[in-house]
Amino acid sequence: MEEQNLESIVLKAVGAEGSIQDSGEFAQRCNIEDHNAIVGVLKSLESYDFIVLKERSNTAYKLTEEGQSYLEAGATPEAQVFTAVRARVSDPVGIGELKKDLGAGIADVGFKQAMQKKWVAIDKSSGKPLVVPKVEVIEDTALAVLKAIENDPATAQGTNASELQQMTKRKLVALKKWSSYEVTKGPKFALERKKPATDLTAEMIQKGTWKDQEFKEYNFDSFGLIPDGGYLHPLLKVRTQFRKIFTNLGFEEMPTNNYVESSFWNFDALFQPQQHPARDAHDTFFLTKPSKASLDKIPSDYLARVKDMHESGGFGSIGYGYSWSVEESQKNLLRTHTTAVSSRMLYKLAQDGFKPAKYFSIDRVFRNESIDRTHLAEFHQVEGVVCGHGLHLGHLIGILQEFFNRLGLGSKLRFKPAYNPYTEPSMEIFSYSEELGKWMEVGNSGMFRPEMLRPMGIPEGVNVIAWGLSLERPTMILYGIDNIRDLFGHRVSLQTVRNNALCRMGM
Ligand code: FB9
Fold first, then answer.
1. 61, 153 in Cβ contact below 8 A?
2. Counting C-beta atoms within 10 Å of the first and last residue's C-beta, which end of the chain has fewer, N or C?
3. CA 468 / ligand 1 centre spacing (Å)
């Protein structure tokens, strides 16, 4: 029944009778099965001073399911056993026969009780233990107690304490305790409770009903609802930190919004030979639809210069001396590094009339490599590019020192000679981790080769220094995540996203 209805039933009863003697009896009278529903309404009305409650403690015996079953059977198990044994006085039976006739449960319980009451005994004179009656008639007193309780649970009229204790011990009855209430009118009694309004509305003001309207008091102790909101993924927090570092160093972000790239921009423009293992399907995701990039996207004069460079070199280079295939350069792929974007940007810079520039990119790249706990077939590459007149390795080392200082990795930085197809010289970058107590690889770097820059039209004397690292590695270390699947992919727990701390990096 609705709480509102219960409330009006209670208020009308108190209004008509002046009080309710007992809420439990009242609930029964109104066919309200759940007394607790009434109690909830009484407590609410009392909190608004509509009524006054006087608590009463109640106890009553209640038959258990087992007790109820004996009442329905009309006899306790002991009485049933005596009746069966009395009927076979001339041809006594054993307990086994009784179990067959009465059922094991009744026979076991009844035999034990009947023996205790000396209603029956065991006769072994025939060699086999037989159950025989010891009295002519019995009185099923336990049944009488069950009947008395059923008739009057509150007082169990006609029974005594010992009998009730015995019945409770046999788990045929249980003592129930509950509270009920005497209800009388309170200082603010009314036949109907007008819910106090929570808002002052324009209608109340216009009609003037606010004058008689009761308003709910402000509860200054309650906490406001915590507004749910969006949460930033740890990778995006670290990306923001990288962006801040690059922009504070005067770098411009490159447009990286194309995951699909031609082999030309991803490899050929970088002077990466067409036989290079990295260009094999085991390392690169090639597209089948569309499998080919349209040539008109690649300026024909530039394409010719790249072809020449690969085949016969130029600008001091001897090239690779192989027959360069334009079809190979048209193969579409998922970019394997954001250096493909750097090559597009540098070509555009040269074509628009070179001027010194600093670019950066942070975006997804894809490699067809074996995956493990810390590697997926994709990751976010972070790349920095600086181009200017007379740049040399010292400038690269300097910008790396400044960049990694801002990541908090610059106190001990070392550089190790390395190889990349499109940079010469190249260096791997290492930082000493006090926490891990070892040197940690934190990136790769180099100076783009003239074989890459000159065909673009980048002028002689201008060099380009560049470096790269990943977003996942620093994020996993900063957030203590050891399995990349807990950071990236469909298994990421949204709770982790909700709970993760602010990203604090270096400076
Ligand atoms: O990120 C890497 N390590 C790293 C970086 C930061 C860091 O910070 C922690 C808070 C303390 C911790 C670790 N690495 C590069 C090094 C290794 O993790 C390496 O095992 C994995 N590398 C990726 C590529 O692996 C297939 C990281 C990724 C990487 C490597 C090279 C480049 C970019 C990303 C590059 C480049 C480049 C070179 C020359 C010119 C232009 C770009």
1. yes
2. C
3. 6
